[in-house]
Structures are given as structure tokens and as C-alpha cells.
Amino acid sequence: MYHPLPHHVPCIFFFFILLDVAASQPLGNYCPNSTTTYTTNSTFHSNLMALLSALASNATRPNGFYNSTVGSRNSTAYGLFMCRGDVSTSGCATCVSDAGTNILKLCPNKRTADIWYDNCMLRYSDVSMFGRADQSIVLNLYNTQNDTQPARFMQAVGNTMGQMAAAAAAGDRSGRKFATLEANFSAFEKIYSLGQCTPDLSVMDCQSCLGSAIQRLPGCCYSALGARTIYPSCNVRYETYPFYNSTAASPPPPPPSPTRRPPSSQPPVSAPSEGRKKHSSSKVIIIAIVVPVVGIILFIAILCCVRTRYVKKELTAHLTDVSGISSDESLQYNFVTIQAITNGFAPESKIGEGGYGSVYKTNTFRESFLVDQM
């Protein structure tokens, strides 16, 4: 039997000691008396059976969640299941199959029903419940043993579960809204927490649902060493012993860092302003280096050309000085001069015979000349 709370919310309290309820046994179920019933072999009954079969067939999905709709108009059956985030796919499939079988036994001919297990929950109705945070039903379970420091303990529970709820609402890459968190309470005591929402809820709705579930714990289960709040759309739990698969419950590793691609051979169509500034700076540096170098090379080349021309000019002038002959006019000497420089046509100055007569050697004007005696 269910007894309404002062807030007119159906509430079920299950008391247990340290041992968990067996996974094959339901934690609780809800079959509202206010809803209408269906008759066996009716259209709704056929749709409900097809719905439960579809849920069981999809119980091995990686995110442990599935919803479906069968039928139309007044005979439509809506349903979903959610497995606990740390449960294996095989464990999920077993739980969903058991839930589908037992919900028909526990809630015969009901057009709306909910059932909760340790590893999963399943619900169906003739009204859609998808994407909506449902807190109309609450199921609380708690450990009858209490902590010796209740105020400090409940504060630690609240802090731990608040962080856990934020992580669960954010979700993971698989699509689950599930998280676990443990925290040290004393040198010999830890707090283990778990929270989960149906993945069809938004982050805000999930956060709100989990927050409401956590706020109920001090009222129902103050100082209890373990407790749960279960809504149709979310649930939270804490214990002072490990009760979940820590390996399966740990978040997936972050995606690998993207491999840096080699620079493209073509310049990008557009680049950030910072990139353009760097590119412009590179141009300035290149120009600042190249222009002086080219200028120096040109200056050296011009200097070499000028120097070459100057050397050639000096060499020409030097050769002119050496020859002492710059025109035919310089070859003309009078007879007295020739006689003087050949020592009066002395035999020792004669060096041979030419076509025009004897050839004498002279030594005057610092250089030697050949004089052809006319």
C-alpha cells in the first residue's frame, strides 16, 4: 500500500540493513489506482505487449536507454527503460526482460506502471513521458545504521553528491547522464555516491531532478550510513562502501589530440589579423636584409668598374710615359742633336744596318731609343 505524504506525493519507504536487495528482485513498483485499466486482448493490450518486446530487444544498447511508442490515438502505448550506468549490456538485458515480465504481474491491466530494480528501471503509460522530468513519485530506501557524527556526515554527503550531480547532468560521450564520485570522510571511512538521469532530459532538467532528490535525503534519512532517492526520471544513492563497478563507472578517456596537419602549399584564403601581422613583419625583415645587401653588392660592383677604368687609364698614361712617344712629331730630331746623342756616330754606338742606313743606339731622356741614320 502507498500512503500519501503531506505534499500529496506517493512515497514508498523500504528499510534495509547493510545487504543490498537482490538484483533479480524489484526495489519497488508503482501502479496508480487513478488510471483506467485495459482488458486482455484489447488493442492497448496488444500495443503494450509489442512495446515491452521492443524494449527488451533494445536492452543491449551502449547507453543503456531506449524509449518507444506503439499504436495510435487512444490505444497508444509509450514506454522506456534505463539501466544503471555501470551495468554491463548483458546485465541490462536480463534486468529489462525481468522488468517487462514482472510489471505485468505486479500491475495487472494497468495503463500506467513503473518498476525499479537495482540494475534498471522500466515504465510505460498511455500518455507520453519522454523528455520530461517526472518527480511525481518518490521511492526512498535507507540503511538503519547511523553515523556517529550526523551533522558533519550529512554535510559531507551533500557536498559530495552535489559535485556528482553536476557531472551526471553534463553527460558523457555515450549519451548517458550518469556519474559516480567518492570522497574521504575520515581516515577509515569513505562516501561513495551515484546519480543518474534518463538521457532524454536536458542538462538543466537533470540537474534540477538530481538536486531535488539530494535535498530529500536529510528529511527521510538523516545520519543514515546509506540512502537512496528514486524518481521516475532520476535517482541518487550514497553508501559508505563500494556498491558500483568503479571500472565501468569511470568516465571514458578524453578524445586524442588532433594531429597537426602539415602547412598547405597554398596560402589560406583568409587569415586572422595576428597572422597577417606576423606575415607583414616577415616581409619587413626580409626587405630590411635584402635591400642593404643588394646595395652593398651594387656599390662594390660600381667601385670595381671605376677602379678598373682608373687603373686602365693610369696604365695607359704610364705606357705613354715609358715610350716617350705620343706622336710622329716626337720622332723628329735635328742633325746636331742626333750627332750629340750618338757620340758623333761613333762606331761603338752603331748596332747594325737598316734599309735607310746605319742604326745607332742612344741613351738619353732616361730611356733608350733606336736612331736610324738617314
From TrEMBL:
Residues 250-270 have a biased composition (Pro residues). Residues 247-276 are annotated as: Disordered. The chain crosses the membrane at residues 284-306. Pfam families: Stress-antifung. It comes from the Eukaryota. Residues 25-129, 135-243 form the Gnk2-homologous domain. InterPro entries: GNK2 (IPR002902), GNK2_sf (IPR038408). Residues 1-24 form the signal peptide. It catalyses: L-seryl-[protein] + ATP = O-phospho-L-seryl-[protein] + ADP + H(+); L-threonyl-[protein] + ATP = O-phospho-L-threonyl-[protein] + ADP + H(+). Keywords: Membrane, Repeat, Signal, Transmembrane, Transmembrane helix. This is Gnk2-homologous domain-containing protein.
